[in-house]
Amino acid sequence: MSAVAAHVNSISVGMCQGFSAVLLPQLLDSKSTILVNNVEASWIASLGVISNPLGALMSGVFMQILGRKTTVQLTSIPFLIGWIIIGLSTDITLLCLGRFISGVAIGMSSACYVYVAEVSLAKHRGVLSSFGPIFVSIGVLIVYSLGSIMPWQVVSIPCALTSLLSFLSVNLTPESPSWLASKGRVADAGKSLMWLRRKPSLADKELAEILNNLGDGNGSTAPMLRDFTAPAVWKPFLILVCFFVLQEASGIYIILYYAVNFFQVAGSTVDSNVASIAVAVLRLVMSVTGSVCIQHVNRRTMAMASAVLMAVSMAACGAYESAYGPLSVDARPYGWVPLACILFNVSVSMLGMVPLPWMMIGELFPLKVRGIMGGLVPSLGYFFIFVTVKMSPGLMTALTNDQIMWLFSAAAAVAACFVAVFLPETRGKTLVQIEKLFSSGEHEATKGTEYLEKKFKPNDSSAVYTISSLVDVCHK
């Protein structure tokens, strides 16, 4: 219930990300009441991304000071303001302003993943975090579908109502128990855990683990500069930043933001609006498929398979363009091939390459710095998205179609190699265990913990308490 309420914001994220794909073709139409050129159109699309880093940094500060739940709830406010301004726009200035404000909200929505990670049990964290990509895909599908039959001004109305729904739904959920404990509010943390777990034994056991990880329960856990230079912080930071760079280079966000235009460039013989809706439907189906797989398949395996299949699909599309690029679209044999390759690429990207970096933001960092890093890392990820979205029109002009496909294929292949070497496996591990994976000298203690957990019954709270105490003694 808490995860669904938090991820209603993700529907708004998908609406914002998909909106430019239906907005720009209508604005570039000669009948549009607001006429724009190609340069202005690229700015309207990219302004929905350029402010994402600002929003993500804001969310990091808010999460640390105000709490995870409060930050998730505050996220819906700029969404609502942005959509109202867009719907009432009469010139390009107001459109740009609305896109910029809603872009701030997209950045702030990264708090959803931190909140969900902290309120979830380890065995449920993967599937509950995967609600985010599912809800984003729902938002994209709604906007693509409505945009194909309605003016963009009308489409902004359900988008605004979604942000209002998010504000109301989050109000029904409790604050993150980890954040409450870190602020010394142990009693409130216990109440939150009781609401979430519904069993006193589970709540007490988890509260003891949180307090043990904090060192003591006096609330003196404000992050210091030395905390950010610890291996448990800079190692996952570098891994996630590199993951995001390779994700953007693979072209998946270019396809999302310029769906209609991209299908025209790729030479698809299918109507561009129909093709973009097909992309949204596939994203949704594969998001659901990914949420099922993430419960049974290792994260690294999913990411590697996703990257390899993306590389193969883009290479196939590039080969087709190399062979038949000089021919007109109508004269090309097997005109469905580019569409099939792109749809397959989008499908497999949702199994790992798109959702995993965002999901792992709430998993990889220690509690002390999770709020700050949960804002900083997404801000860099959104900055990389902005760079790729802003460069896309120039890229499509400077390179031939087949060269663009080969570039995307090469980036996905490099991503597969990177994941195989550097990405840690987090499936089934608690946030405390994940933190110890990156801490120098603590990997042996983690192995000991895993061994003892096999020896004792998983639900034996005394055994878990003994394990955590023994590990603490070993460290000392």
Automatic annotation (TrEMBL):
A single cellular component GO annotation: membrane
GO molecular function, one term: transmembrane transporter activity
Membrane-topology annotation of the record: Multi-pass membrane protein
Transmembrane segments: 41-63, 70-86, 92-116, 128-146, 237-260, 272-294, 301-323, 335-359, 371-392, 404-423
Matching InterPro entries: MFS_dom (IPR020846), MFS_sugar_transport-like (IPR005828), MFS_trans_sf (IPR036259), MFS_Trehalose_Transporter (IPR050549), Sugar/inositol_transpt (IPR003663)
Subcellular location: Membrane
Domain of life: Eukaryota
Domain Major facilitator superfamily (MFS) profile: 1-427
Assigned keywords, A-Z: Membrane, Transmembrane, Transmembrane helix
Pfam families for this protein: Sugar_tr
PANTHER family according to UniProt: FACILITATED TREHALOSE TRANSPORTER TRET1-2 HOMOLOG-LIKE PROTEIN, PTHR48021
Protein name: Major facilitator superfamily (MFS) profile domain-containing protein
The organism of origin for this protein: Acyrthosiphon pisum
Taxonomic lineage of the native organism: Eukaryota, Metazoa, Ecdysozoa, Arthropoda, Hexapoda
